[in-house]
Amino acid sequence: MSGSVLFDAPGPNAIRRSRILSIVFAVAAVAALGLGIYQLWLGGAFYQDRWDIFLTPELWFGARGLMVGLRTTLTIAAIGAVGALILGVIFSILRSAPSKWVRVPVTIVLEFFRGMPVLLMMLFILIVFSTGAYWAVVWALIVYNGAIIGEALRAGMKSLPKGQRESGLAIGLTPLRTTLLIELPQAFRIMLPIILAQLIVLLKDTSLGYIVGSPEIIRIGRQLVDFYDRQGGPYALSMFFVMLAIFLAINITLSWLVRVLARRMAQPRRGGPNLDGTKTEAIPVSTQAMREVKDPQAEITRLPGAGMGGQG
Amino acid sequence: MQALLENWPLWLQGMWMTLLLTGATTLFGLPIGILLAGMRVSPVAALRVVATVWTEVARNTPLTLVFFFTAFVLPKLGLILDFQIGAIIALTYYTSAFFAEAVRSGINSVPIGQAEASRSIGLTFGQTMSLVVLPQAFRSVLPPLINVVIALIKNSSVAMGFFVFVLVSVAHRLSNTYGDQALQIFVGIAFSYLILTVPLGQLVDHLERKWSVQR
């Protein structure tokens, strides 16, 4: 339902009222923002000596600079994403295995992985397997997000019409090949927006490395603040704004890409031609399903236990 | 497991703090989330913009960075808070956006004909929302809201990195003292989280089955 149905196409009076309300509210919002900024200015947040450190290349590109932290964050996210996708496919196959002896234990293990905080898993891997902070973060992200992606893929496979699997078996494919060739590709397409949204969550979760001790960007930022604070003014606020800007730039770009991709994939994609050469009107099942996903990041809350942002 | 049983007051302390953070955040975050969702579908453009910016920024900021703000930046600005209060503020800000999205997706799940029908019999925006759309949205909104609370329980663990003693902190501290029992301690704490999250998840499944509106 689009918002516009909720109220009339406004007439002259309503337009005036809404405009007045808009202006009043905008003025109030701007005033509140202005007051906040004024307070910050009184506190000296905009003095040059709070920002001068960002002109030193050392802060960005030094051995323990922000860019190094950003690279760690992105590398962890990339390894984690690939690993989680692979593990997710494996989990989803095991989870819908025909044998009860495989299906039930895998279901329990997946429920276990999804029910605990990623941070707990990171600490567990760090302390029990002594992998070092970096790999503890990577492995925990792979296992946790693999469980979520596996569950998403399974939900996608379950939403397919029964005929998909039956016809696969009927043309003589083995059950495993039916899953791999018929069900998984369609499930993947249906769940693509949700899976991609989860990968953005994974990127945000890399910042938990701050707590575990892996040298990602927020940890580096904190160390830089501590370092430069000893040479002058408090830099915590300006560092916060810089890191916020970096994360917002990356995440909003990625969210936007996901949304564009989801919309494009929901375009009617016709199947091949009919036997007599005419164009078929059939729309693939997965395309129909994709149309129902409007906002992938909101949709993720509907996935049982997947949670909205897992962590961080 | 021995270590965990011997240190049950510590466990209780962590459990209490986890529940406190979750409860307080839901108490403050849910009304803010509902308000934000209402603002996002309202006729007043300025309200829509503010709500959209709020949710987009909150959703795309790592929770760790929000905690960084309340724990390290606010004190520098002269606002010295208890770490627990800071944690509640950080979690409330972050979670309110997800509450808002859950409510909004619930509002969007009400078929357009319902709103059209109530508009056509002359109800205003406020009446349409309060009498027709929201009562129906409530059913479809409750399961995703509980999912947000489940995620919130897990998210509260981030407070550990910012000087609040939650359940994960119990695992961390005990495994340092009783290195040989680390595995049991972590499994025990994982189950402590599961006894909170799994029943809520079951509730979601139950509600979804019971309340799904046949249209």
Please render the helix and strand layout as text.
The complex is a heterodimer of chains A (312) and B (215).
Chain A: H1 12-42, H2 57-61, H3 66-95, H4 100-115, H5 118-128, H6 133-159, H7 162-170, H8 175-205, H9 209-212, H10 217-229, H11 236-265, H12 285-292, H13 296-299
Helix pairs in contact in A: 3-6, 3-8, 3-10, 4-6, 5-6, 6-8, 7-8, 8-11, 8-12, 10-11
Chain B: H1 2-6, H2 8-40, H3 45-60, H4 63-76, H5 83-109, H6 112-120, H7 125-155, H8 167-177, H9 182-211
Helix pairs in contact in B: 2-3, 2-5, 2-8, 3-5, 4-5, 5-7, 6-7, 7-9, 8-9
Shape of chain B: flat
CATH level 1 name of one domain in chain B? Mainly Alpha
Number of strands of chain B: 0
- Mean pLDDT across all residues of chain B, rounded? 88
- DSSP helix count of chain B? 9
Radius of gyration of chain B: 21 Å
Helical residue percent band of chain B: over 70%
Through-space gap between termini of chain A: 31 Å
- What's the CATH C level of the largest domain in chain A? Mainly Alpha
According to CATH, the fold-level topology of one domain in chain B is MetI-like fold
| Overall pLDDT confidence of chain A | 83
Number of helices of chain A: 13
- Label the CATH architecture of one domain in chain B: Orthogonal Bundle
- Structural class of chain A comes to mainly alpha
Largest sheet of chain B: none
**How helical, in percent, are the residues of chain A?**
over 70%
Shape of chain A: flat
Task: Extract low-pLDDT stretches of chain A.
Answer: 301-312
